[in-house]
Amino acid sequence: SVDSTVSITVVGASGDLARKKIFPALFALFYDNFLPEHFTVFGYARRKLTDEELREMISKTLTCRIDESENCGDKMEQFLQRCFYQSGQYNSEEDFSELDRKLKEKEAGKLPNRLFYLSIPPNIFVDVVRSASRSASSPTGWTRFIVEKPFGRDSESSAELTRCLKKYLSEDQIFRIDHYLGKELVENLSVLRFSNLVFEPLWSRNYIRNVQLIFSEDFGTEGRGGYFDNYGIIRDIMQNHLLQILALFAMETPVSLDAEDIRNEKVKVLRSMRALQLDDVVVGQYKGHTKGGKSYPAYIDDPTVPKGSLTPTFAAAALFIDNARWDGVPFLMKAGKALHTRRAEIRVQFRHVPGNLYKRTFGTDLDKATNELVIHVQPNEAIYLKINNKVPGLSMRLDRSNLNLLYSERYPREIPDAYERLLLDAIEGEHRLFIRSDELDAAWALFTPLLKELENRKVAPELYPYGSRGPVGAHYLAAKYNVRWGDLS
Ligand code: BG6
C-alpha cells in the first residue's frame, strides 16, 4: 500500500490565534509523536515571508513545556524544518494553485491528504474555501477544513454561511471548532456521568435543583474591541462555549460514542430548549475603575469600540429544557469579561434531602446543606462534591466539606491544550468534538430572538466596575428562580 501524507495549511498564519495556539499545538502533537510520519505544515497569508521568516516567527511561540531538555530543542528544529510558507491573496485561485504546486512537491509519490485551518476573519471564510477547494484540494486523498467561530451573528447569517460553505464542501469535510469541547474536563463530562452509577441515576429534575455554567475572565477586551463590539459576550461565549457544555451535560444517553450518535443527542436537547426571553437575561458592561493605585479602563475607553456602544461584556441568563428529564430545572449561565477572577466551571446543585433528620442543625438555610457537584474546567482543573459531614467531637456539628479530585495532584502531567485534541481529531477524521450544522442552527434559534430584541430595544447594559463580581442584576435573576450563584456564596 502507498504511504500517505498529511499537509496542514494554516490560512492566516501570521494572526494571533495561529501563532499562539495552532502552531504550538501542532508542535506539541509532533513532540508526543501523534502526527503521522509524513506531514508538512504550510503557513498561508498575504504577507510576503520566506520559509525561514515563518520559522523564525513561529519558533517564538513554541514551548518545550514537557521537558526543557536538549532533546526538545532538537525536536523543535525537526518540526520547524517541516514548516513552509506560501504568500497569497485569500480570494485568489491562482495563489492557491501555487500552494497546490508546492504541496505536490512535498507529497511526492504518497497518498496526499490535506487539512486547511482557517484562522481568518469570518468575512473571508467563503473566499478562502472557494479558492482553496477549487485549486488546492487533494486529488486522491481527503481534504478537510477547520473553521472557527463566529459562524454568523444570528440564525439567518449563520444559515447563509453554511449554505455558501456547502457549495464547495460536504458536511463531513467541515470541522467547526468550539475549542471548549477540546478541554479535558468538558470531554470528561460524559465519562463522569455515564460511567458512574453514583451520578447517572441522579441526573434529572428528580434530584437536581439547578445547574450553573459560569465563565469569567479577569481581563477586558483590550486590543480585540473591534471584533468584540460586533458580537458581544452572548455570541462570544454563551451561544457556543457554554451552550455546548450544557448540551453535553443534559443530553440523553447516546446510542454509542460515535460522532453522529453523540451529535444527534446534542441536537435533540438543544431543540427541546425554550428560546430565551428578554426577562430571562441580564446584560452588563464594565466601566473604568481604580484599585490599589492602578486604574483599569472602561470597555468604551477602547479606541476600537464605537462611542456609546451598548454591547454587553457580561450576561447572565436562565435557560430551560422542556423535556421529561429537565422540566422546570433552571440552567443558569453567566459569562463576563473584566471580572474579579478567571475561571470556567459547572456547578450542579442538588435538591434538599427530604425530611432531613439534621435540618435543625442547619437552621433555616437548607441551601447550605445541599450537595453540590463542582467541575472546575479551568484553571486548577478539579472535580469536587460538597457533602455534609460531622465535625469530629462530642457535639453534633455538621460541616459541608469537599470530596476533592484535584487534577494537579492526581494527574501531575500537564493537560494538553484544547487545540491539540481538536487538531488531532480533525487529522483522524473524528467529528465527535466538532459542531454539526444542525447543532449550529439549533443553537442560533435559541439566542437569535433575544439578540434582536436587545438590539432593537437598545437595552442599556448595567455598568459594573472592572475587576468586580459583575452586575447585581445577576443575583436578582438567580433569585427569581430561587437560586444562589454557587461561585459567590
Ligand atoms: C474565545 C473568545 O472563544 O474564548 C474569547 O472569543 C475568550 O473572548 C476565549 O477569551 C476564552 O478561551 P480560553 O480557552 O482562554 O478560556
From TrEMBL:
The keyword Ubl conjugation does not apply. It catalyses: D-glucose 6-phosphate + NADP(+) = 6-phospho-D-glucono-1,5-lactone + NADPH + H(+). One of its GO terms (cellular component) is chloroplast stroma. GO terms for biological process: glucose metabolic process; pentose-phosphate shunt, oxidative branch. One of its GO terms (molecular function) is glucose-6-phosphate dehydrogenase activity. InterPro entries: G6P_DH, G6P_DH_AS, G6P_DH_C, G6P_DH_NAD-bd, NAD(P)-bd_dom_sf. Pfam families: G6PD_C (PF02781), G6PD_N (PF00479). This is Glucose-6-phosphate 1-dehydrogenase. It comes from Ananas comosus.
